[in-house]
Description:
This protein has 274 residues and is an alpha/beta fold. It is built from 10 helices and 11 strands.
Amino acid sequence: MSARPSISEGTLAEPSKDRANPAVVVKALNLWYGSFQALHDVNLQVPQGKITSLIGPSGCGKSTLLRACNRIIQRLDYVRIQGSIEVFGTDVFAPANEVVQVRKQVGMVFQRPNPLPLSIRDNILFGLRLHDPNVRKAARAELDQVVQSSLQKVLLWDEVKDRLDAPARVLSLEAQQKLCIARLLPVKPRLLLMDEPCSALDPKATAAVEELIWELRGEYTILIVTHNMAQARRASEECVFMLLGKVIEHSATDEMFVTPRSQKTADYIEGRYG
Ligand SMILES: Nc1ncnc2c1ncn2[C@@H]1O[C@H](COP(=O)(O)OP(=O)(O)OP(=O)(O)O)[C@@H](O)[C@H]1O
Ligand SMILES: [Mg+2]
């Protein structure tokens, strides 16, 4: 194995080169579920317009960190948080009135596709109806255009254009997950959080959804949790390795997989644990 510079604990959260306006800034974040501390002094800057993947063994806090970024973690009354997260300059833990603003900017995709029990069309328009009071007055043609362009963006239009009124849940898992991404787009989020979005999909569907995520880069900032090393390597530009609630290393993906700076990262990538 190649020699790596020795490092002290928790020092490898390195900013990437382009740090002018990070999409997400996490500072000194500690999080407890009851008396159990799940995140320890997490500091992280997620660059705009790139795909950043979060990797690490099961239970290391990836989903917890992702859920803190749009505040859904605070639905649990036994969660206690110290530190701060800013998303495009807005403090995520600020009083409730600002949270709507944060949520509009942040969309989330979960492990299992979770379309609403509505038609394909109404799934796409749901977020818009929730966030934009003027939608009720919008012309049908205008809304049709929103539906079409959102579905085109996720490469689903041709497959569903003749059955927009069918229930979303009759679609294949791959199409449902694409729909779950498409329904975020009308609200024009800037940050997409994805928690293992391909874990319920077969290899062919995984490849299709990954391809789509890659296409969305640039226009959106994407923070994606994955257990799939090949996916992290293929689909992301920066990579964050977590272990036991701490960020161990944050590097350009190419560097992390070729010359990880931490022995712990190397052990994980090489499959020695988790
Ligand atoms: N709602 C909860 N209540 C109590 N403890 C929780 C809760 N959610 C997660 N935990 C604990 O917090 C730690 C981090 O969990 P988290 O789900 O963030 O890990 P993860 O890295 O996403 O794991 P996985 O790869 O299995 O999805 C784990 O020890 C887990 O048991
Ligand atoms: Mg998880």
